[in-house]
Structures are given as C-alpha cells and as structure tokens.
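Example record for the data management plan.
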Amino acid sequence: MSKKRKISLSEEELVLSLQHREKIAVEALYDMYSASLFGVISRIINDTAIAEDVLQETFVKIWHSFSSYSTEKGRLFTWMVNIARNLAIDKIRSKDFKNQNKNQEIENNVTFIDEQRNTVYKPELMGVKDLVQTLKPEQKLIIELVYFKGYTHVEAAEELGMPLGTIKTRLRMAILELRKHFN
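Corresponding structural encoding:
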C-alpha cells in the first residue's frame, strides 16, 4: 500500500485554486494547514474529539466563506487561524459544550486537564483541593465554577442566578481566605 503524497502549493497558487473552487485546493488546504489549525483549536478545546470536529467545521467554513477573504487584508493563514480560533471559542461558549462539562465532577475535570496537558500539577498533593473544601459553601461553589470549570464571572452569575457584584465579592473573599494558607 503506497503512502498518499501530501499536496503543497504556494500561497498564491492555493488562493487561486480556492477562488476557482478546484478539488486540489481542498486537499492542499488540509495537507498544508490541518496540523497548525488543530494546534490552535487544541489550545482552546482540551477534548481531542471535539477539537477534531471544530477542525472539520473550520475547513467547511473556509471553503464556504472563501469569497470574503482578501489578500489585501492579510495572509491566508492568518485569516484561517482567526476562523479556527473563533469557532473554537464559539464551541466552548455554546450551551451544549457547557452542559456536557457541567455533568463532569470537579475531580474529573482536574484529572482530564492533567491528562490532556501531561502536567504533573496535582492540587491534591498541594492541599488546594482540601483548602477549597474548607470555604463557605457559596464561596466554594463560585471557586469551582470559575477556576475548575472555566466559567466567566458573568456566566457564573447567570448559572447561580446572582448579581455579578455578589459573584465578584464572594470570589474575592474566597481567594483572600485561600491566600491565608499560603502566606
């Protein structure tokens, strides 16, 4: 079985092929840029399967919206990276993605992040996990949402049905309480 030869075109050739909607353009686009775009997406989305789906969405969007690309505004790669980045951010902000992540317990999230990033950071060894457990329940919940599940302050306020100011105050108080243990 022979290995498929990768297609490589100059940026100008690729742009022309894309403008003419040639089949070779799609193949070259994927061969030349899939690894780089996947890297951008993977830095935002830590789930490989979801990142692969977003990569596919990225190439579909590039193909369908190529008429909006202009060489005067910048390089092709920069334009594609912006599409990939925006789709990845849209994905992690989507209701489906949030609901999927809410169903995982905090311990699973911490372990998942460690496995994805091959880190040796273990909060349980530092006692951080135990320290968070000592907080008041309302502080602990906000810390879990913001720091372990990646919610923004606004998203945490919406999730908990609280004013943004209350979220920020409780978060600040929780951090001050946790800092006492590290001084």
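Summary line stored alongside the record: The two ends are 63 Å apart (CA to CA).
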